[in-house]
Amino acid sequence: MKSPKIYKKLKNYTVVLIPEKNGKSKYFNISKKFLTYSFCSLLIIIVLLTSFFINYSNLKRKNLSYKTNNEQLNQSNLQKTAEIQSMKENMDKNNEELKNTEKELKNKLKELDELEVQIKEKLNNKGIHIESSNTINFELSSSEDIIKTADYKISSLTSLVNNVDKKLYIQAHKPSILPYYGTITSYFGVRKSPTSRGRSSEYHSGIDIGGSYGADIRCAADGIVEFAGWNGAYGKLIIVNHGNGYQTLYGHNSKLLVKSGQNVSKGQVISKMGSTGRSTGCHVHFEIRLNGNKINPLKVIK
Question: Within a 13 Å sphere around the CA of 51, how many CA atoms are in the beta-carbon half?
Fold first, then answer.
């Protein structure tokens, strides 16, 4: 006779709690269905918790990645902001330089105008007329090109002014007027001696211009008085050094009005006509020397 399968018919389980010391044991009845439901519920909870932690880890990792990317973007934004600020500062600097360039350009053009006025005034005073210089095309030229052109024109005009000043200086210091406008009584070169009967002819180193006693004798050009005093046959003599190799001599004066070392200008009265020294009448002996050589005054003064 087979024993019955009792365990298959059991629907409840009894849990016995036996105390360690003497005491009354406790009994708890738990149904099989409850255990089954509890186990399934625990399994579901474990699955859910595992899924939650996996998702949480993934989200946390993604969040960290987003945070890193955000920091990188913030850093990039800061860098871009700094670059924009630097570009703005450069633009402000360039604008300031442009303003300075325009100011410099105006100053240079003003210098051009002033130089042109100076040239015209100087040349017009001498009866020389020049045409106005070419104007700068501001529409077709950049500021840099205009400045270069202005610099070139300033240099050219400055050179022109210097040349004009040099020419005017040479012109002012070159004998160009007679000391007295009267009758020429004796010319340059070989002549009959007016004082020596024994000599029929002599070399005359200048021209004699007759006039009234005490008449004004004027300087032939700008210069410096090199000598003013008595000189033998010349009588009371004045020698003026005009530079560029030119000297003029004024002899037989009755009175000297300048001193040695004095600056004199063209047309200035420097003495009074007389007949001192080796002279036969009231006149001025006028002589021109170039680099020490005596030349005909009438070939210089025309």
Answer: 6
Q: How far is CA 156 from CA 112, 153, 259, in A?
A: 10, 5, 41
CA distance 98 to 103: 9
Return the structure tokens found at 6: 């009792």
Residue 151, helix vs strand vs coil: helix
Q: Is the pTM of this model over 0.90?
A: no
> 63-81: per-residue pLDDT in tens?
888 888 888 888 888 888 8
Residues in the chain: 302
Q: Which residue has the tokens 């095309």?
A: 137
Give the residue carrying structure tokens 């200086």. 169
Reduced to 3 states, what is the DSSP secondary structure of residue 187?
coil
Instruction: Count CB-CB contacts under 10 A for residue 190.
Output: 9
Confirm if 208 and 241 have CB atoms less than 8 A apart. Answer: no
Give the pLDDT confidence of 87-123 residue by residue, as tens digits. Answer: 888 888 888 887 787 777 777 777 777 777 777 777 7
